[in-house]
Amino acid sequence: MLHADPESLENKMKDSREFMEAVRKLIQVCGDDPDRQGLQETPFRVMKKFLEYTEGYREEPKAHLEKLFDVDHRDLIMVKDIDFDSVCEHHFAPIFGVAHVGYIPNGKITGLSKIARMVDGYAKRFQVQERLTNQIAEAMEEVLRPQGVMVVIEAKHMCMCGRGVKKRDSVTVSTASRGIFAENPEKRKEFLSLLKN
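Below the sequence we write its predicted C-alpha cells.
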C-alpha cells in the first residue's frame, strides 16, 4: 500500500535499512561474513520473509466471516485440517499445524473458505498457540452468534522441536469451547469423535 505522506515513507525506508543492518550484524555475531556471495541479499530476504509471516496485522481476520447466509441448519458444521503456519512470539521460530473449527449455527452460516481465511489471518501474526485458539473461537462467536463454537489446534513448535529440549516429534494440542460446547459434554464429545474420524 502506498502512503501519501512522504515523511512516513521515509521513516519506513529508514527502519528497513536499520533492520537490514541489524541482520548483517547478527550474521557476524553468528560467525559468518555478511558480504560473502550467499549472504549479501540475506538481510533483505529476512525482512521480506517477516513481512509475509505477519500479513495478519494488515487485515481484520474476523471480517472474512461477515459474508453470512440464512440457512436453517441446527447441527454441527466442522472444517477439519485447516493447515496454517505462524511465528512464535518468544523465539520468532516457526509454528505449523492444523486447526479444526466447528460450530452449531443459530440461523446464519458463513462460507467454508472464509473460516480458513480467518484462521490464516490470526496465524500470520506473532503468536502463542493458546491465544490463536481463543482468537479463532471469539471471532466465530462474535460474528456468527452461533449456539456454540469449538476449536482444536494441533501444532509443532520449532522453538521446542528444533532448539532447547529438541523434542522433534512433540505436538501441542489446544482447545477452546464456547456456548453449547462449553456447557454440554455430549456436544463436545460429538465434535471430538468426528475429529478422530
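The radius of gyration is 21 Å.
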